[in-house]
Design a protein that fits this description.
By secondary structure, this protein is an alpha+beta fold. Helices cover 38% and strands 25% of the residues. The strands form two sheets. The protein has a two-stranded antiparallel sheet. Strands 3-4 form a two-stranded antiparallel ribbon. Strand 3 and strand 4 form a beta hairpin.
Length: 102
């Protein structure tokens, strides 16, 4: 894999980790927190939205003054899930959760 593809994948993973954490985070804050150009964040976020992995929505908790509310990113809970299996000699445990841990 070429170096630029590795870098793009690394940045995509970093962005997904922030969004997955459940923080109300905007593109602007992602760029600032991760030390990335806003254009890099926009390209990656647009790809993730197009792939149906994340969504962008108005920040319902924003109580700022005039102007529009910032948009925050979140994992689409209808598009991702995880499963864990623990197999012991006398027990089997299976856990399934959606993208938000429910």
């Amino acid at each position: 894999m070429p170096a630029h593809q590795k870098s793009a994948q690394l940045n995509t993973n970093r962005i997904l980790r922030w969004v997955w954490s459940g923080s109300r985070i905007s593109r602007k804050l992602l760029a600032s927190n991760l030390g990335l150009d806003k254009s890099t964040v926009t390209i990656i976020v647009n790809r993730l939205i197009e792939a149906g992995i994340i969504e962008e929505r108005p920040d319902e908790l924003h109580s700022g003054g005039s102007g529009r509310r910032p948009l925050v990113l979140s994992i689409r809970k209808d598009r991702a899930c995880s499963m864990g299996v623990e197999l012991l000699p006398d027990m089997l445990r299976v856990v399934i959760s959606d993208a938000r841990g429910a």
